[in-house]
Amino acid sequence: MKWKSVVIPVSLLAPLALIAWGGLRLYKTGSVVSTGPDIPSTRVKRSDVTFTVTAKAELEGGKSEMLTAPMMGGAQLILTALHHSGDLVKADDVVAQFDTTEQEFKLKEAEADLAEAEQQVIQAQADSQAKAEEAQYELLQAKADLRQAELEARRNPLLAAITARQNTLAVEAARDKLRQLEHDIPNRQANSTAGIAIQEAARNKAKVQAETARRNIESMTLKAHMAGYVSVQQNMAGNFFMDGMKLPIFQVGDTVRPGMAVAQIPDLSNWDAIARIGELDRGHLAEGQKAAISVIALPEKTFAGHIKNIGGTAGSPWDRHFDCKITIDNPAPELRPGMSASIVITTETLRNVSWIPAQAVFESDGRSFVYVQSGTGFVPADIKVVRRSESQVVLTGLKDGALVAMANPGEQGKKTGPGAGGALQAIPK
Q1: Total domains present in the chain
Q2: pTM above 0.90, yes or no
Q3: Which of 37, 107, 249, 308 has minimal Cβ neighbours within 10 Å of its Cβ?
Q4: pLDDT tens, residue by residue, 73-104
């Protein structure tokens, strides 16, 4: 009875173990999915694979002359004249003009103050000269009085004691007066000189104010220092825009803050393409990498370039990007600022590797796999992705020439319409 009680459970567990082992084997190898005539497929190829980064760009001068609003403190500058983007200008041509009404008023006010200060200086100098002549007269008179008193004092031995004493006192008084005048005259001259200096300082202040107003008026006219095409800049003066919105360019009537760039004159022999690239491609780019540039307006020409610099990452969390500046190595006279272009940057070339189109690779639970042909159907097979781009995937784990499905065979026939059986479909669980 004990032997039978042991044999019966074992006989029941054996089939269950076989079923579990078969299920595990089926899970590891994958179920064969029957194929149909409408399943697209491709073969694993071996060759050199070049990876690129593509983006849209806009042209601007590489060594452009930037025209900025003059630095005038907190003054509000209003554009009264401005060339349009693309206008051809020569050296010394006026590109932009600001309203000079306020500065012209300040200039007239400063010129009036200057004229008044000039008269004040002249008057102060005349007063100083008159006082100096008056002091000299008083000094001469005091010396004469002293001389007269001394002559009178010589008769003292012949005069009465009282009269002699009066003559002696008169001499001392005349001598004290002369001594006081000799002490006071330099002080009077110093005061006169200080008064003239004060008036001259007021005149210099008015002169500086007038010169500043003239210089401000002159700086409010922006002229081109070289020939080229005008590129009007974006207006960022106190405007609120959502991320991704394109800022408007300056136009007549806009208020400009001091120091803001209003326009630039690109150097027609130096051109850059400014591209906005997604953050995911940042690690694949480096300064000096070669790029091919196609200008939309010049479809018959292709330009060569290289990465000049890579800017910082910016943008919202769902749209992180950075600006990449690419220098055009072979510019042409037909190029203009603001032209749209497409760039292709070659980042890496892998030699003699196995690859398939990116559409044939699927992902699920952190696994990357393909549907490879097995017999009359397709079976899932795990692969290791070495490098991928939007169109190609370099991999290991498959034999060269193996036939793989470009769509999920299990979903064929279940869905219709766009996206049925597309890439990155998960394996059925």
Answers
A1: 2
A2: no
A3: 37
A4: 667 789 999 998 878 888 899 999 999 988 89
